[in-house]
Design goal:
Keywords: Membrane, Transmembrane, Transmembrane helix. By secondary structure, the chain is an all-alpha fold. The protein is built from five helices and no strands. The chain is globular and about 55 Å long. It starts with a helix and ends with a helix.
């Protein structure tokens, strides 16, 4: 159990490296760049979520996991409502996938912005 928690901590500390490792592994397995990118983004999203929460916790002394989960759920509700307005059939898994991948993009941008701020404030 100690090894697993250490591995998760390392992967969450460097989520970009986690993304590229997952991408390279999946590229070797599937031989499809698009599918490998989607898979790596889906899995590394969790590590970006942990990393952004850790940076925010260091900066503000408060955890934001509950807020992230609420935002993801609200996003799914919005996407399902848009599906309901445009189409007759609602696809919940499609809505979750859209929100999860949009969350990946937002978390990557947030991590990129917060990392230098966190380093600057920590070593000020």
């Amino acid at each position: 159990m100690d090894f697993l928690s250490t591995l998760i901590a390392i992967l969450a500390t460097f989520p970009y490296i986690t993304f590229f490792i997952l991408f390279i592994i999946m590229k070797k397995v599937t031989r499809q760049a698009t599918r490998s990118t989607k898979f790596a983004a889906d899995l590394s999203n969790l590590f970006f979520l942990i990393a952004v929460n850790a940076i925010l916790f260091n900066l503000l002394n408060r955890s934001f996991i509950v807020y992230f989960l609420l935002l993801f759920m609200l996003g799914v509700i919005v996407v399902i409502t848009m599906q309901w307005r445009k189409e007759l059939e609602i696809n919940i898994m499609r809505a979750v996938r859209v929100v999860w991948r949009a969350g990946f993009i937002i978390l990557v941008i947030t991590y990129t912005i917060l990392l230098p701020i966190g380093i600057y404030i920590t070593y000020l």
